[in-house]
């Protein structure tokens, strides 16, 4: 396996794993604050490997996520689109932020998304997220450094072992 | 210098192009949402993509399944023995109750025959297992491991040993999605078993609570009353336990009484669900008058199913 294919494998594998993690249930009390894994992983790849991730990719990935969870077709697609657009715009700055600043930025991105989600649901007349769900972006921001370091070290390992 | 300004221009135009593309995609997403909301396109898209969706659901259900298996492997012998004893006692009690009921059922049937209102209440069903995945934390739905290949269809009622759980709203070849009675968009017609008072119980989104809003202030409801399905509307069979009243309060305006009830079914903890076959003769309003036109036998198969509206 060449380095290229292995990197591709990590890219698609991590995104697929994020979709699975989104579906794995947590205890009932924790369910509303479950971090939105697909968004976190997608932000990582947007920042680190922008050749792969564009608006079209985010849209398609969001549609796939919608197909699996099924709130409303296009809901996650739109939200991921906004997240990826903003992180592409500020990619150059986000890349060289120290970790805590990066975490905060991710937190703000997710908070913006939570707002967007509430608006979409209110417009569609779907059940609104509970108050506890506003903690999910904070949890996402706290988890960001671990996710970032994990994916980064995996990528570094791929690079080192390549011939 | 020329190069740098060139570069800047490129940068700018690519930015503008990015924004345009964003707008195009946003419009596309919004269109999709409206289409789905209007025409319920998502279940259809899911049915088309069932080859992808079903394996992912099963895979995502694996962790809980494995942890269940491990938990059962770790239970001690004494626990199993205690369980076994309990189950035997329950079985005995249930058998005695059935034996007592049988004479009453016979009496009831005779009385009904006298009234010429015999209804063939055939209680046939199919066991399905719950695939443990979280579709949306703000709605209450279950994924089951039976689908259209096993004859499951939209509108079937899901119950467990304790009461009604919900109804099937979406069917894929090998899986189906059940909307629980606790979902905020679900409503079920009920009957207070003590007083015969009829009402409608709505889901609240909390797993452990149903709400019966807008009862009149002098409605006779007490904590501990058993709410049964009334069978009105013809969707749910009559006489199944739905919930037990746990809180009664008067609304702030003082004009209504509002009742909260705990579902009888073990909605969170059931791993197996019984899907009832449609009742032979649903109790409820008469079917709409036949449409004038060519004979029904000429109609296509699919058109029959869209008779009842199903909440999403």
Short description:
With 163 residues, chain A is mainly alpha-helical. Helices cover 74% and strands 0% of the residues of chain A. Chain A has helices at residues 3-23, 37-48, 55-69, 75-89, 91-95, 99-124, 136-161.
> Class by helix and strand content of chain A?
mainly alpha
Weakly predicted, low-confidence segments of chain A: none
Q: Roughly how much helix do the residues of chain A carry, as a percent range?
A: over 70%
CATH superfamily of the largest domain in chain B: Rod shape-determining protein MreC, domain 2
Largest sheet of chain B: 6 strands, antiparallel, barrel
What's the number of extended β-strand segments of chain A? 0
Residue windows where pLDDT falls under 50 for at least 5 positions of chain B:
1-9, 303-312
Largest interface: A-B, 42 and 45 residues
Q: What's the overall geometry of chain B?
A: globular
| Overall number of structural domains of chain B | 3
Question: What integer value in Å does the Rg of chain B equal?
Answer: 26 Å
Arithmetic mean of pLDDT of chain A: 88
Q: Count helical runs of chain A.
A: 7
Give the assembly state of these chains: heterodimer
CATH class value of the largest domain in chain B: Mainly Beta
Shape of chain A: globular
Q: What does the average pLDDT of chain B come to? A: 79
